[in-house]
Amino acid sequence: MKKFSFLLMAMFAFALIFSSCQKNELDALSKPEDSSNPNTNVPSDSVFAVSINVKMEVGSMVYDSASTNITVISWDKNNIAHEKEISISANNNKVYLVKTHQKFLFKFQKWGITEQLTFTKEQIKEGDVISFGGKSNQKQLSAEESFMEAGGVTKPYSKVNYLYNENGLVKQIDYFQAENSTNDLKFSFKIVYSYEAGLLNKVAYFDAENKSFGTSVLTYTADGKIATIKETKYGQSVNATFKYVIINDVENILAEYSFDNGNKMNYTIKYKNGNIIEDIATGTSGEESGKYEYDSNINPYAQMNLYSLFLTNLSKNNNIKQDKVFSGSIPSNIAYKFEYKYDTNGYPTEFEKSFKTYTSNTHLFKIKTFYKY
User: Fold this and answer.
1) Rounded to an integer, what distance in angstroms lies between the CA atom of residue 280 and that of residue 319?
2) DSSP 8-class letter at 89
3) Are the CB atoms for 292 and 275 separated by under 8 Å?
4) Which runs of E-coded beta strand occur in 168-311?
5) Would the CA dihedral through 56, 61, 64, 70 be positive or negative?
6) In degrees, to the nearest 5, what angle opens at C-alpha 120 toward C-alphas 118 and 121?
7) Number of H helices, E strands in the chain
8) Which candidate, 13, 23, 201, 289, has a CA 20 to 30 Å from the CA of 4?
9) Contact indicator for 333, 357 with CB cutoff of 8 Å
10) Rg from Cα positions in the chain
11) pTM for the complete prediction?
12) For the purposes of burial, counting CB atoms within 10 Å of the CB of 276, is it exposed (0-12), middle (13-18) or buried (19 or more)?
C-alpha cells in the first residue's frame, strides 16, 4: 500500500512538472499584460515577435481594424503541440512565439471567413507580418423596428422597411411612426432613390397619401465623392457644396450650406480610417461640435450608401461614444450611451441608445432597435 501511494505521488509530481513546463511555454505565446514594457514576463532570449494583420472585404468596403481572436498552435522539438488563443486588435497585434519550437499554425475565423496558415521554424522570423483576410457578401438590411422606454414603460416607436433594386441598391424606404393615442404603427412617409452609373443622383420624398413633399439632387467629383446637394422640402431649399482636403493624414470635408432665408452654415468633418472622428458646425444660431469613437464592427447604413444631407452615414463602424458641445441653440436631449449586439457576421442585431438632458445630465429615455436582414 505504501509503495503504491509513493508511485502515485511520483506520477502526480511528474505531471505537475510537465504541465508547468507546457504552461510556461504557452504563456510566452501571448503579448505581455504590461503594454508599456513589451518584455515584461517574456524572456527576450526565448521568444520572438510577429505581427498579425487582418484585412477583410465585406461587400465593397474594407475592414482592417477588426478585433478578433487568433488560435496559435506550435510544436516543440518533441513534436508536442502547444495551443493558445490570443486576442488581436489594431493596437495590440503582436504574437510572441517560442524560438525553440519547430512549426507554427495560425488559425483565423471572423465574420464567416476562415483561414489558416502554417510555417516551419525556417519560414518565420522576428518582425514578420502574418496577414489574414478574405471576402464576404454584404448583408441586406430588410427592416428595423424600434421601441421607446421611458419611466419604466416601453412602447412602439417606429418601423422602417428597406426595398432594393436588381443591382442590390436601396430603391425605397418606408417609414412608420407610432401614434401617441394607440401606440399603433402607422405609415408616415417614403423615400425613393434613383441612380445613374451606380451613383445616387436623386432622392424623392412622398407622404402617407403618396404626395410629393420634396427632392434632393446630388452631383459628384471625378473620383466619386459628393460635390453638391440641392435639397427641397415643403417649398424650402438648401444648397450644399463639399470640398475635400487632407491635413495630417486626416481627410477634412469642408461643407457649406446656403438656405433660402439667406442664412449659411459651415460644417467641417474630420474623416479617418473610414469613420467620422470629429466635426464642427457653425451658423447664425450657434455652434455644435463633436468627437466620436467607434467599435470595429459593421455599420449597415454605410454599406447601403444611404443618403444624408449632412453625410451622417459615412462611418463604416458603429459609434460607441460621443462628446458633444453646443453653444447658442441647446438641444432638449442628447444621446449618451450606445450598446450593440451583433451576429456572427459582424452586423448589429440590436442597438440601444440612451438619451439625457444636455444641461443636467438627467436620463430621459432609451430607444431600442432590432434589425432584420
Assistant:
1) 17
2) B
3) yes
4) 170-178, 185-196, 199-207, 212-220, 226-233, 236-247, 250-259, 264-272, 275-283, 286-294
5) negative
6) 135
7) 2, 24
8) 23
9) yes
10) 27
11) 0.83
12) buried
* Type and span of the H or E element at 48: strand 47-58
CATH number for the domain formed by residue range(s) 28-34+45-136: 2.60.40
Cell for 371? 434589425
Question: The dihedral of CA 371, 373, 212, 238: what is its sign?
Answer: positive
**CA neighbor of 66 nearest in space, from 34, 113, 26:** 113
State CA 301 to chain mean position distance: 11
Evaluated on CA atoms 37, 40, 45, 50, the torsion sign reads negative
- 32 versus 372: the higher-pLDDT residue is 372
| 162 secondary structure, DSSP code | E
CATH 2.40.128.600 corresponds to the domain 143-372: no
Q: CB within 8 A of 310, min separation 6: which ones? A: 255, 267
The residue ranges of every structural domain in the chain are 28-34+45-136, 143-372
End-to-end Cα spacing for the chain: 67
Contacts of 222 (CB under 8 A, 6+ apart): none
Convert the pLDDT of each residue in 243-258 to its tens digit.
999 999 999 999 999 9
CA distance 340 to 319: 10
Rounded to whole angstroms, how far apart are CA atoms 254 and 243?
Answer: 5
Type of residue numbered 150: A
Task: Enumerate residues 6+ apart whose C-beta is below 8 A from 117.
Answer: 105, 106, 130, 132
Ramachandran region of residue 74, left (φ > 0), alpha (ψ -120 to 50) or beta? beta
**Residues 328, 332, 338, 342: what is their CA dihedral angle, to the nearest 10 degrees?**
-120
Percent with pLDDT over 90 in the chain: 80
Residue closest to 143 by CA, chosen among 169, 157, 162: 162
Q: Is 8 helix (H, G, I), strand (E, B) or coil?
A: helix
Question: pLDDT of 328-370, one tens digit each?
Answer: 888 999 999 999 999 999 999 999 999 999 988 999 999 999 9
Which ranges of the chain would DSSP assign to H, the alpha helix?
2-27, 300-304
Amino acid at the residue 258: S
Distances from the Cα of 102 to the Cαs of 21, 28, 51, 83, 348, in angstroms? 17, 15, 19, 14, 41
